[in-house]
Amino acid sequence: MIKQKYIKLFRVKSGKKIHLKDYDTSWAQNEEFKAFGKEQLKERANEILEQNLVDLKQVQQLLYADDRYSLLIVFQAMDAAGKDGTIKHVMSGVNPQGCQVFSFKKPSAEDLDHNFLWRYMKSLPERGRIGIFNRSYYEDVLVVKVHPELLQNLPDGKRGKAFWENRYEDINAFERHLERNGTVILKFFLHLSKDEQKKRFLERLERPEKNWKFSPSDLPERGHWDDYMEAYEDLINATSTDWAPWYIVPADNKWVMRAIVADVITSTLRDLDLKFPELNEEQLKLLEQARKTLEEE
Ligand code: AMP
Ligand code: MG
Fold it and tell me: Which pTM value belongs to this model?
C-alpha cells in the first residue's frame, strides 16, 4: 500500500486553489521512491500495483454482491499520458461482468442536439458496478473551451460571460445528484509534462507498431498546451468537491502512476461499508425447504 499521507498529496481538497505547476509530474517528493534507481522504482511500483489488483478483485466482488453503490471513475489527461494503459492494467484483474468502460470521442450530431451531459448520463454504471469514463463531460469544459467553435447551437444569450462557470456548476450538481443516489465518484487527472509528451509522440512516430496511436490532431492540440493547462486548472479548482474529488496523479513514470491510481481505487472501495446481503428468516426458510426438496429427490 502507498501510505495515506502520500495519497493525500494527490487529492485536491474542496475549496483549495491549486496551480498545476506546483504538482511534480515525476513525483520526486516521495521520500520512499526518491532513493530508488529506475529499475528498482519500476519493481517497487509494480509490487504495489500487484497487491492492489489482488485486493481490488475481492472488493469488486463485494461491491457487486452488496448491490447498493456504484463506482464511477473518470480519467482525463493530455494525449499520450497513458489513460488507456492505466485502464488496461488497473482493471486487468476485475470481473468483466462488473465493469464497463466508455471512451468518449467527438460527439455525434445526435449528442449535439441534446444537453451536454446527455450522452454521459446514458453510460453511467449500474448499482454494484464499476464504470470507467475514458474522457468524459470534462471535455465539454476542456477541448470545447479551447476551441469554442465546437460548442453546440445555443439560443442567443446562453453564451454569456458566466458560461463556463455555469457549466462547472451544472457538473457539480450532476455529480452531487449521483452521489446522493449511491454513486461513488473518483476523478483522475494524469498529469504529464510537455517534455514527456514529446518523447512519447516521437516513440509513436518511430516505432511502426505504435504508429496507429498517433493522430493528426495530436500536434495542433499540443500547440494549445498552455490553454489546456489553464482549462484543467480552472476546472479542477471549480469541481474538486467532497463528493467527487480530483486526484492529480504524476504521469511521467507510468509504473508509479498506475500504482497510485490502483491504490486510490482500492482504498476508496475498502472504506465503504460493503457487505454480502443477509437473508431474512423467510428467505432462510425457503433455502431450507429447497435443500430438503433436493435431498428427497
Ligand atoms: P482519443 O481519446 O485520443 O481517441 O481522442 C478522442 C478525441 O475526441 C479527442 O480529440 C477529444 O478531444 C475529442 N472529444 C472527446 N469528447 C469531446 C467533446 N465533448 N467535444 C469535442 N471533442 C471531444
Ligand atoms: Mg489520442
Answer: 0.95
Q: Which three cell numbers stand for residue 27?
A: 513525483
Counting ligands in written order, which one lies closest to the CA of residue 143?
1
* Distance separating alpha carbons of residues 49 and 27, to the nearest angstrom: 17
Residue 122 CA from chain centroid, whole number: 17
- Contacts of residues 26-29 at CB distance under 8 Å and 24 or more positions apart, as own/partner, are 26/193, 26/250, 26/252, 26/253, 27/250, 27/252, 27/253, 27/256
Give tens-digit pLDDT for 9-26.
Answer: 899 999 999 999 999 998
* Res. 280: pLDDT tops 60: yes
Phi-psi category of residue 278: left, alpha or beta, with phi > 0 → left and psi -120 to 50 → alpha: beta
Mutational pocket test of ligand 1: of 104, 145, 200, 228, the residue with most ligand atoms within 8 Å of the beta carbon: 104
Q: How many CA atoms lie within 13 A of 214 on its CB side?
A: 18
Instruction: Name the residue of 101, 111, 112, 135 whose CB sits within 8 Å of the most ligand 1 atoms, as the mutation to test its pocket.
Output: 135
Q: What is the CATH number of domain 4-295?
A: 3.40.50.300
The structural domains of the chain, with segments of one domain joined by +, span 4-295
Q: Cα(33) to centroid of ligand 1, in Å?
A: 34
For residue 29, is pLDDT > 80? no
Cα–Cα distance, 132 to 184 (Å, whole number): 12
Contact yes or no for 77/108 (Cβ under 8 A): no
Which residue type occupies 243? W
User: Using an 8 Å Cβ cutoff, are 10 and 247 in contact?
Assistant: yes
Phi, psi of 37 (to 5 degrees): -80, 180
Q: Beta-carbon neighbour count of residue 40 at 10 Å? A: 11
Beta carbons within 8 Å of 208's beta carbon, 6+ residues apart: none
- What ranges in the chain are assigned the alpha helix state H? 4-10, 31-34, 38-66, 83-90, 109-112, 118-121, 143-146, 163-180, 194-206, 218-222, 225-239, 254-270, 281-295
